[in-house]
Amino acid sequence: MKKVVLFKSASEDYERVFTDNNYQVAFVEPLQFTFINLDTLKEKLSQNEYEGLILTSPRAVEAVSKCWDPTKFVTWSTKRVYTVGHASSQKITLLLGLEALGSTTGNAENLAKLIAGENSKTSKFLFPCGSLRSESLPNILQTQGITVDSITVYETKENENLKEDLMALSDSTQEPCCMVFFSPSGCEYIHRQLQTFNNKLSTLPRFAIGNSTAHKIEILGLDIAGVAAKPVAESILESVNSYFSNLNN
């Protein structure tokens, strides 16, 4: 049974998809998060000046949930909530009780085009986001005349246990067959740590959850074995299977 390293927090969905297809899964979280500006966020959520809410990461959803009050924020159930990715969409339903649009768009650029196509040029959206956010989404919307009120609600840092986790992974009896990366910042932290000790990981095939992560891997001067067509476990599995199938032919 091949062993796949997923550089993300443990996920039942990913565990199930890979184990059902004869892979062993090792989760390594390269990031840690600190929530900030929650008082300001709560104040903005209380205002009735927005047409909708944009949440492009699970952490942004968690930040909103920390100051969420369904009795005070009833008006949000009548507004549009946009997201990108299945994980964020699930969290919006679970933690906020709202239905999200755009979960199948695949990336921020496609999501921005969807929002621009469905809303008037005078619209205003609240965009809780992380300290390392890409400016592509707000930039695209602003060129369409849509106002984006961005507020940083969490900071992303390197997981303090990352090197220890990577060393344990490299020393494990069953060597991994490949690594899957889920964020540009995660790529950078992992690459930096792998340069500090002798390991079996640096030569493994690398897969990316999406184009921005793949681009970061390329910037680091590394090869990419595959990029998931969609940011879901099934697409990553398909990319991994395709790579090894072609390798064996």
From TrEMBL:
Transit peptide in keyword set: no
BP term (GO), one: protoporphyrinogen IX biosynthetic process
Any Pfam family the entry gives: HEM4
Enzyme class name: lyase
Gene Ontology CC annotations of this record: cytosol
Residue stretches making up the Tetrapyrrole biosynthesis uroporphyrinogen III synthase domain: 20-237
Pathway: Porphyrin-containing compound metabolism; protoporphyrin-IX biosynthesis; coproporphyrinogen-III from 5-aminolevulinate: step 3/4
Reaction it catalyzes: hydroxymethylbilane = uroporphyrinogen III + H2O
One MF term in the entry's GO annotations: uroporphyrinogen-III synthase activity
Keywords annotated in UniProt: Heme biosynthesis, Lyase, Porphyrin biosynthesis
EC number(s) from the headed UniProt entry: 4.2.1.75
Summary of the function given for this chain in its UniProt record: Catalyzes cyclization of the linear tetrapyrrole, hydroxymethylbilane, to the macrocyclic uroporphyrinogen III, the branch point for the various sub-pathways leading to the wide diversity of porphyrins. Porphyrins act as cofactors for a multitude of enzymes that perform a variety of processes within the cell such as methionine synthesis (vitamin B12) or oxygen transport (heme).
PANTHER family: UROPORPHYRINOGEN III SYNTHASE (PTHR12390), UROPORPHYRINOGEN-III SYNTHASE (PTHR12390:SF0)
Family, as annotated: Belongs to the uroporphyrinogen-III synthase family.
Stated name of the protein: Uroporphyrinogen-III synthase
